[in-house]
Amino acid sequence: MNVADPVELLANLVRIPSINPRERAEPAETELAENIALWASERGMQAHTEEVLDGRRNVIVTLPGDDDRPLLLESHLDTVETDGMTIDPFDPVVRDGRLYGRGACDAKAPLAVFLTAMARLAERGPRPRTVVLAGVVDEEHLYRGVTALRASGLPTPVGAIVGEPTELRMVVAHKGCMRCRIEAHGEGGHSSQPWDKTNAIEVAADVVRYLQREHAPRLAALARPLVGPPSLAVTLIEGGQGPNVLPDSCVLTIDRRTVGGEDPHEVWAALRAELTDRWPVTVHEPHIVDYSLDSDPADPFVCTVAGSLRESGLDAAPLGVGYGTDASKIALDGVPAVVFGPGSIACAHTADESVPLDEVRTAVDVVERVLRTGGAPA
């Protein structure tokens, strides 16, 4: 394989299914991880895999350089499901300058970009700094791959580029989230005698109205320049035992998006206090927590990425987005992190997922240029 051709590599990655198994005990991403390790080893790089859980393995590719403190390239191996796709998810097709297949955009294109840039560096040099690529599992569910990476003993990177479809923009900020269940309690009983009894569904309705009309509007005061204000949405409701039974429980699920400066656990604690003071409810501990990203656009590493974008004639202005990425977890360790890659988030998870190949090739040039500087401004 020509190490300078990311398109053939991307097609090979798409051919290997790596659907996130959610809570099933399946080694879903492992074949892909092992394929990447072999590809990298054949091109002079050090590569190994590390088990995270249930036989699911991260892959770590290292290209040693003059400075041992690494520059990290990170992207995820897993994809979402293929139900409802209108194309063959694992038979990549190139048409009208785009490559189609599950994961083509999110996020096997960034993997192909990172690997190609590293292979070019391995072949031609120079290597001012060690480069580490981490392909991780479970980004599409509970982030357990990047969590394992943080605990693996990897030296703190000088900076990180996290691969996601950003249309070749440099994302430095995104929202986090806190998802929890709010359980409203009632007394139960026969529906023919509802008088003077607490109806759990009616309590839940009061909570929803309060969240929409009083709580959510206050979040506007916490707006951040690149991502706007936090948000809160009620996304699920479950309650009742039968049409002739007064409900003794009704459960709401909320999605609370956080911004820089907010800790998701503190957000939960404040919301719990606010609601339990007013209604007979239990605000259960969060079942999903993710952190926001708020990298400093003036950081030297971020400036290096911006400079490489400008050299390719691209928009180098820092961007904020509403979706989450692994970058926020990496940034918890004090690592300046940016999110970058070819393709659009609008194409991710779609029935005919694809990525423009001109963006893939341009992204290789941008990343290779950053690696040749070692992550420091020229």
From TrEMBL:
GO MF, one annotated term: hydrolase activity
All residue ranges annotated as the Peptidase M20 dimerisation domain in the record: 172-279
Keyword Ligase: no
PROSITE patterns documented for this protein: ARGE_DAPE_CPG2_1
Cofactor(s) it depends on: Zn(2+)
Superkingdom: Bacteria
Record keywords, A-Z: Hydrolase, Metal-binding, Zinc
Protein name per Swiss-Prot or TrEMBL: M20 family peptidase
Organism: Saccharopolyspora elongata
